[in-house]
Design a protein that fits this description.
This is Glutamate--cysteine ligase. By secondary structure, this protein is an alpha+beta fold. Helices cover 39% and strands 14% of the residues. Helix 4 packs across helix 7.
């Protein structure tokens, strides 16, 4: 009988959006939630980032997201502003409309950090918005499978193994949730305007999106070796801090995402590839989060492997390719990407065959693959 504790966990969301005025232009007013820990901004002042409390289910975290969303919308209505519920930014004239987040007082260091990011990456990259899904297994489950060994050590090794699996499969949830193929021409050309279709289903996850100037490769022998491999890049000046590690998956300590806080061990894992879904009132479908949860459960049971530098570079390559709008010729481990995705979903369906709710979640994702395949066939018939 399967250990039912495996489904228990902690769930949290971070949702980034931009603030726009009544004309759909980037807001130029000050951030209206200066002292609210749940409503902040990431890079720019005209951004809203909602940070939910830690919850015990996807349903609860969606309720918290809804609560925060309503609070923001009410305040913005009073300012005659709106939320821009798209991952790609609206029209803007130039970089002067993208003010760096103006953290003050004890938080001034956050502003200085963002000014350094501006010099390294430019402002426009920081306009991309999305959703980060934070998850951890319940300690009760982890203790039940730890065989009496030192729990802290076991927990750290568990999340290192899970990181490797999720990193190698990060292309799959991206493939299933990419939702930003259209962008305004001003994103790349000053003075231009009007929407255009890019070659990407998700620009922010593509080769043009949120990446370091190099591909970081990390070590996984232990948590200390993992942390040391990040610190090496900081020492070399390639990263300002652990927060600048722009990979689709992150291990996170409790509290601020700093190298020092890893001294207390891994707290949770973060999936960073979710586009804002403009067809969903809250920007995300709950079943996509349920699928991410099931994927973490499924991958946590898969055999460990050596995550070589070559495999890590390949994982980034696969992730960027999954962000393409036209997937013709894109393969994962030599198999066409849509076929490979179907194989994994079939295995997950078999794994969770005893739960109708989970079967429905997986069927929901499978239908997206069918839609992509049908679209490809139709386009081939129309355009040859």
């Amino acid at each position: 009988m399967k250990n039912q504790l495996i489904y228990k966990g902690n769930f949290g969301l971070e949702r980034e959006t931009l603030r726009v005025d009544k004309n759909g232009r980037l807001s130029q007013t000050a951030h209206p939630f200066e002292d609210d820990g749940e409503i902040t901004r990431d890079f720019c002042e005209n951004q809203i980032e909602l940070v939910t409390p830690v919850c015990s289910s996807v349903d609860d975290v969606m309720k918290e997201l809804d609560r925060l969303d309503k609070k923001v919308r009410k305040a913005l209505d009073d300012m005659d502003e709106r939320i821009w519920l798209y991952s790609n930014p609206p029209h803007f004239s130039d970089d002067s409309e993208i003010p760096v987040a103006d953290f003050k007082g004890d938080l001034s260091s956050k502003r200085f950090y963002r000014e350094k990011l501006e010099l390294r990456y430019g402002k426009r990259l920081m306009l991309f918005s999305g959703i980060h899904f934070n998850f951890s297994f319940d300690d009760e489950y982890l203790k039940s499978i730890s065989s009496g060994e030192d729990f802290s050590e076991f927990k750290n090794r568990f999340y290192l193994r899970l990181y490797k699996q999720l990193s190698r499969h990060s292309w799959l949830p991206l493939l299933l949730t990419a939702a930003s193929p259209i962008h305004d021409r001003s994103l790349y050309e000053d003075g231009e305007k009007g929407g255009t279709v890019s070659r990407y289903s998700s620009i922010r996850s593509s080769e043009k999106g949120y990446w370091n100037s190099f591909v970081p490769t990390l070590k996984f022998d232990s948590l200390s070796s993992y942390v040391d491999s990040i610190q090496k890049y900081v020492n070399e000046g390639k990263l300002f801090s652990a927060s600048e590690l722009y990979l689709p998956i992150r291990l996170k300590p409790k509290g601020e995402n700093s190298i020092e806080n890893f001294a207390n061990g891994v707290s949770h894992i973060e999936l960073r590839m979710f586009d804002l879904n403009p067809l969903e009132p809250l920007g995300i479908n709950a079943d996509d989060l349920r699928f991410a949860h099931l994927l973490a459960v499924y991958l946590s049971e898969q055999p460990d492997f050596e995550y070589t530098d070559e495999l890590q570079v390949q994982a980034v390559h696969n992730h960027r390719n999954a962000a393409l709008l036209d997937l013709e010729g894109v393969t994962i481990d030599g198999t066409p990407i849509l076929e490979r995705a179907g194989q994994i979903l079939d295995k997950m369906s078999e794994r969770f065959s005893d739960n109708n709710e989970y079967q429905n979640v997986i069927a929901y994702e499978k239908a997206k693959l069918s839609d992509r395949i049908c679209s490809k066939i139709i386009n081939e018939k129309i355009y040859g």
